Amino acid sequence: MGRQSPLEDGTLSMRQKALLKRDITKEHLSNLKAGYVSIHEASLHKTGIRGRKTYLFWALVGFLLILALGNLIVTCFLLGVLRLANGMKNLELLPDENIIKFYGDIDLNMTIKRDGLLEAFAEDGMTIESQEGEVHLVFSNSSEAIHMDPIKTQVDNVNSFVVYDPETGEEIFSTDYPNFGLPKGVKQINIKQAIARSISSPVGSNLEFKSPSKLRLKGNEGTKMDSKNMIVTAMTDLFLKAVEGAIVLEAYDGVRIDVKNVNLARSSPTDEAQFQLCLCATTGQIFRVPIPLNNARRTEKITCESAILHDNICDEK
């Protein structure tokens, strides 16, 4: 076994240890100075953003900050309108059943439903409202539509319109031919045109036809009106026309014309020729007689009595 060094066996004195430590430190410092190069700070290459690039950098930072702030505002707005929390308060999506459930009052400008089916919950009804406007139900690629406003409900271009009781499925109202009946509580119906075989009112009730401008009753095979008491009035003119056949006015107690309310022929500075309306006393046939312009100056005036009648329309058959 070799001999140990004085440092290992502890035979060095305190002075020898101090000298040995100083030599080791000096050798270490000399090793560090071997790779050291003295340089000047002014000659070093400066890194980072300086000059105009600084303004562009802060401008980009400001733009991103404004964009993030706008996104935050929009997000808060959507959270408030849609009432989003853990879910959506007024809306629930059921993709498995292909259903969208709405809760409470929903404000929608336009709703597009592919199958056209709008339903409410079994225990609650569904109310569709429009504030100071109308409600339009329009079917795509067709002219069928339903328009509702505070005054009327209008159905356009449909073959039939049926309303059912949602609970019992009973038919409440229908326009299907041949029987078209108004539901209880409805006393009048406003339509532009109706094609029907017959129109009648319940026993003991009046049937009235009114129009603000023009009312036309037409039958392809004739028109027959039967009533206990029939009154026909017009603000301007009343036309009775038969394309083929005749016009027959028949009543049990006779037909009366209120001549007090019949408008007189208008006066004209050019003296237009007029017609005189005449009535056969025996048959009730109505006809007209042309009155010439100089009838007032004639010795024998043209009247109903002087009319030459063809086919003996006033003779009883």
UniProtKB/TrEMBL annotation:
Record has Hydrolase as a keyword: no
Domain of life: Eukaryota
Bilayer-spanning residue ranges: 55-82
Record keywords, A-Z: Cell membrane, Cytoplasm, Cytoskeleton, Disulfide bond, Glycoprotein, Membrane, Signal-anchor, Transmembrane, Transmembrane helix
InterPro entries referenced in this protein's UniProt entry, alphabetically: Sarcoglycan, Sgcb
Major site of localization recorded for this protein: membrane
One Pfam match: Sarcoglycan_1
Recorded GO CC terms: cytoskeleton; sarcoglycan complex; sarcolemma
Membrane topology category: Single-pass type II membrane protein
Cellular compartments annotated: Cell membrane, Sarcolemma; Cytoplasm, Cytoskeleton
Subunit composition and interactions: Cross-link to form 2 major subcomplexes: one consisting of SGCB, SGCD and SGCG and the other consisting of SGCB and SGCD. The association between SGCB and SGCG is particularly strong while SGCA is loosely associated with the other sarcoglycans.
Role, per record: Component of the sarcoglycan complex, a subcomplex of the dystrophin-glycoprotein complex which forms a link between the F-actin cytoskeleton and the extracellular matrix.
Protein name per Swiss-Prot or TrEMBL: Beta-sarcoglycan
